[in-house]
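Researcher: Sequence of MerR family transcriptional regulator follows. Predict its structure.
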Amino acid sequence: MILDLYYQTGQFAKKASVTIRTLRYYDQIGLLSPSHHTKTGHRLYTDHDLFRLEQILALKYLGFPLSEIKTVLDEGPQDIKQALALQKRMVKEKLQQMRLLLSTIEHAEHLLSDGQLRWKSIIQLIQAVQMSNQHGDLDWRKYYSEEAAKKVEERQKTYTAEEAARDQLRWEKVIATFKQAYAQQLPFDHPTVKEAAQEWQQLIYEFTQGDPAIFSGLKKTYEEGVFSLPYSEDEGNYINRALEYHQQTKDGRG
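Model: Prediction complete. Tokens:
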């Protein structure tokens, strides 16, 4: 009679498509305990237990950790609604990260040269993407004033993964142009150097929006070696002199 009302552990596991080991673990942590035990200590599960297990598996699929699943199921529908809202936001953030990763991979494909990967450039690309997408490993705020850091954070809220990858590719191109110009020792008034300088200054302006405090913070991050620069010291000196030359020309001092 009791087998008509209860599932033995093996039957229950098979019906729910989980392992017996999983059921035992869920019992151990108090997530899903059988409704009944036989006199010999064997677990017996009901249809109500099956429904709870289905809820557990559904929430687990949505990405909830087991500790949160227990709280959600024990505390009721309102908490489930709130938990799902939180999980929805987390999923959206994860999707944005995955879109950024996809853009990174696509842009890395553009860095192929004669069938060989330019690893240094790709590493720089990945580093920049990580820097734009994480807040824990590096406290970049310490290089900015409090007001400037708030402005940067506000701007980051609307700065999409696609825009980050697009701008990193722009940096890749302008740096590659400068490196080639240095190798050829092009004069600063050469059209190629002028165009590269204008693009560099445009990228800086788009980040700082002309705010001196943000520019000052950005300058500190480079001066203190926060970023690994994708060019040599000599190339960097050439770039700085070219930028200074075109700034003076722009200001009418050249």
